[in-house]
Design a protein that fits this description.
heterodimer; A: 184 residues; mainly alpha; B: alpha+beta; nine-stranded antiparallel sheet; 9 strands
Chain lengths: 184, 318
């Protein structure tokens, strides 16, 4: 009788830990797809941004072409996650560079469409940063669970591997300063 | 620039006029309370010396006289307190920012208090007053004094006994937030109960529609427990810079603050142990430090907009 109770208890604990591990793993997947959603939102912004900037600037053609190419590459679908992450970083820095150069084009700076795009851009930048931080938090939670006892027992049996956290780009760690970005 | 009560001629004239009124009220109140006190004393003496009937008569007579005096000064007291809020506190508000207004009989409605989700319990008794509203830069805000209580009913030998407990006593501050968001994010101080709830929520199961948000700022996570309907949105609101600012605000407040973000608005609850903006009765109005505490409280609230950088509008909330 006692043995049956003990076994029952152990099975219950096992189910509980197994479910909690699966839950944490799913959270990591979820958080990763949240980054994708945010990135998609940013990609959608790019064509409009390029159109508006084109009308006002003659000197940024090189940057604009690069941005369009990068976007096409990222959305083409046949790139790996790692490549996409890299393209994304390049895209981010190109566009941020472009935003800084806006200083040289007073007409563009005053254009309402451009101002709207700028705010949406900043919004999406910070949403991406938030999604990345969420992903990192989910990964840390998951890694802790599979590395600590008794989660480590199940993780070994189920072949669960630790995930790596995303490196936050240096500019994301800084406070976003309106003045620095747009010189409003 | 400091609001200088002493050298403000207009305010000094108002205060001088009100001081006469205050003296009259304080004299009447002293007489009224003395009358009642004397009545009680004579009652006790009557019982001690063996003339209980005389004691009762003395109490009724003196109590009646005292009561009438207090009742008759009631209207004047009311008018005096109103005038103080309108003319004295009002002047201090206008000096700080012309957009600031004080409405003594308005406040934050009980529905809004519940809606803010700052506290888990719903109030059974709710009082609010002294609504101050204004605009600091681009950010509209308002705050008011709130006292919310819940009751517990105990069975005793003689029936039931009702006890009242504070949910919150202090100021509730509300401001337009500078980012768009759809969900709810609630930040509560990390006391024992909240820490236990957070442990359950992250290790066993979560309850309600909000999940625990573990943030990377360890100081922030030590001071607060954060729940949100959307993990990403919570981090969109609570950027690393915002967490630092909230921590600073928390450290400059006397008691642990609670915050919530709902429908592009932010709510902050500051627990306080005194009632602000009340006219003194037994202390002179001509004391240069008269308004120091009240002004400090208003300034603290007004500066939150700066402190939390709510005027930076680069995220599509204009």
């Amino acid at each position: 009788m006692i043995i049956a109770i003990v076994i029952g208890f152990l099975v219950l604990i096992g189910i509980f830990f197994y479910n909690s591990l699966i839950g944490k793993k799913n959270q990591v997947t979820n958080a990763f797809s949240a980054i994708d959603v945010m990135l998609k939102k940013r990609f959608d912004l790019i064509p409009n941004l390029v159109e508006v900037v084109k009308q006002y600037t003659n000197y940024e053609q090189g940057t604009l072409t690069k941005i369009v190419e990068l976007r096409a590459k990222a959305t083409s679908g046949n790139v790996s996650d790692a490549e996409r992450a890299q393209i994304d970083t390049q895209l981010g820095s190109s566009i941020n560079g472009l935003m800084l150069n806006v200083e040289n084009y007073p007409d563009l700076k005053a254009n309402t469409n451009f101002i709207n795009l700028q705010t949406t851009w900043t919004e999406s930048e910070e949403q991406i940063a938030a999604a990345r931080r969420t992903y990192n938090s989910a990964v840390t939670d998951y890694n802790n669970a599979i590395m600590m006892f008794p989660g480590s027992l199940f993780a070994g049996m189920l072949n669960f591997r630790p995930e790596t956290v995303l490196e936050t780009a240096a500019e994301e760690r800084k406070n976003i300063s309106a003045k620095e970005l747009f010189n409003n | 620039m400091q609001f200088d009560v002493k050298n403000n001629v207009a305010l000094q004239n108002v205060l001088a006029a009100m001081e006469v009124e205050r003296k009259k009220i304080s004299a009447a109140q002293t007489k009224g309370y003395l009358g009642i006190g004397l009545g009680v004393l004579l009652l006790i003496l009557g019982f001690v010396l063996g003339f209980p009937a005389a004691g009762v008569v003395a109490l009724i007579a003196l109590g009646l006289v005292g009561g009438i005096i207090l009742y008759r000064i009631g209207d004047e007291l009311h008018a005096y307190k109103d005038a103080y809020k309108q003319n004295v506190i009002g002047a201090a508000l206008k000096f700080l920012d012309p957009s600031l207004t004080l409405k003594p009989y308005e406040g934050i409605l009980a529905q809004e208090f519940v809606y803010s989700q700052l506290f888990t319990k719903n109030p059974d008794r709710y009082k609010t007053e002294d609504l101050v509203s204004g605009i600091a830069g681009k950010t509209g805000f308002y705050f008011a004094e709130v006292h919310a209580e819940y009751k517990t009913v105990h069975q005793t030998k003689n029936g039931t006994r009702t006890e009242w407990h504070d949910i919150f006593k202090g100021m509730i501050f509300v401001a337009d937030f500078n980012k768009n968001f759809k969900g709810v994010t609630v930040i509560r101080p990390k006391d024992f109960g909240a820490a236990l709830g957070a442990w359950f929520s992250s290790n066993l199961f979560s309850f309600g529609n909000k999940d625990l948000v573990k943030l990377e700022n360890t100081d922030f996570d030590k001071a607060f427990v954060t729940y949100a309907t959307d993990q990403v949105e919570a981090r969109y609101i609570l950027t690393p810079a915002m967490m630092e600012r909230i921590l600073n605000l928390h450290n400059s407040a006397k008691y642990a603050i609670s915050l919530s973000f709902i429908e592009s608005r932010m709510y902050i609850g500051f627990p306080l142990d005194r009632n602000y903006f009340e006219a003194p009765i037994f202390k002179t109005l001509l004391n240069p430090q008269l308004l120091d505490d009240d002004i400090a409280a208003i300034k603290f609230m007004y500066d939150i907009v700066q402190e939390l950088d709510l005027n930076t509008r680069i995220w599509g909330e204009n």
